[in-house]
Amino acid sequence: MKQKLIQSSWIIVFTLLITVFSCEEEVGPQPLENNTTPPGMVENVIIENLPGKARLEYTLPDDDDLLYISARYTLENGTDMEVKASYYQNSLLLEGFRGLSQVDVNIYAVNRSETKSAPVTVTVEPLEAPIFDVYRSIETSPDFGGMRLEADNPTEEDIALLVMQKNLQGDWEPLPSSIYTSVSEIGQSLRGFDTIPQDFALVVRDRWLNVTDTLFTQVKPLYETLMPRENMAPITLPNDAELIASHTEVRDLFNGGTLEWYDSYFTSRTIDVGNHLVTWDIGTQTKLSRLHIWQFSEPIGGQRLYYYLGAMRKFRIWGANELNDGNLEDGTWTMLGEFEVIKPSGLPYAQEDNNDLVAAQDGADYEISIDKPAVRYLRIECMLNWAGGQYMAVSEVEVYGNPDF
């Protein structure tokens, strides 16, 4: 009998505990106060219509319990929006509009008890969204192995420039090489296409899923090939950099090895003033499209660091059809491009994450503008490495282009 009483007591206590905790879980976040009197309404609302946006300025109600102002509206695509501003501000920026249409906005003053005022309704008529200016500026042209796409995005909006081709079912679908960017001047080459006429469709989309009309274009990609490494030969000009040791040589730039130190090219760390240049012959005069470069990765603590020591951070590529004494300023050499390697993670020096590894381990393309002349001789000039010097450590370089252009 005593045992049954003890069991019953435990059941009662357990039930009470469950009830208490259940009540606590159901409560959730509560208002700061319990004031059910609505605050006054905002007044003197001034509307400034902007591209895809509208700015509201207003006079706040004189209410000591005021917490924030809320504006609620529905975009043209049916998305419900709410924007809030604290009682320290007297303006709101409403975003996401397609533009060129009237949209009603309800503005509420809200107190610390989450009690809302009566709404003040205003009508905004934002200007056309920035994606349409981007769309109208799009220009396409043939490029090596694909299409060159250029457009202007002067307000640096976050946009997606979707490039589509038809799938086997005949439906347009976005390519993985579609462009997602916020830069002011868009210039990108899409490669990997056969040299037959290619049909593309392009639309511009913003982060609120507003989209432009579709631009249709046909482009015939230019022929591109990998220049044979067996036709390449090292060259040493008077101002080329001294090598780090006897085991490294210019030929290691194009011997097919992309990882180990004995397959890589290093200039001396002890000489860090002046040019750090390397020169070689690609075998024949060629209209270049790109260089694919693998930076040397230092094995540190069981991992490979790609943004470390002599790996190039800023560098230039030069080309010529004649050789001189190495002078870059007498007109013999043409600068084919100046480049900066971006570390995706932004972590401090000697710290890298998986995003950095993925971006670097397979090398990267450095494109040569199609308006640059065909050349036979190449030079790489390291301007700055990741250690802050100028010496370079490069594992491999592949050269792409069209020798018959």
TrEMBL record:
Pfam family for this entry, one: DUF5000
PROSITE patterns cross-referenced by the UniProt entry: PROKAR_LIPOPROTEIN (PS51257)
Occurrences of domain DUF5126 (ranges): 128-229
InterPro entries to which the protein is assigned, alphabetical: DUF4959, DUF5000, DUF5126
Name of the featured protein: Galactose-binding protein
Sequence ranges assigned to domain DUF4959 in this UniProt record: 22-126
All copies of domain DUF5000, residue ranges: 265-401
Top-rank taxon, per record: Bacteria
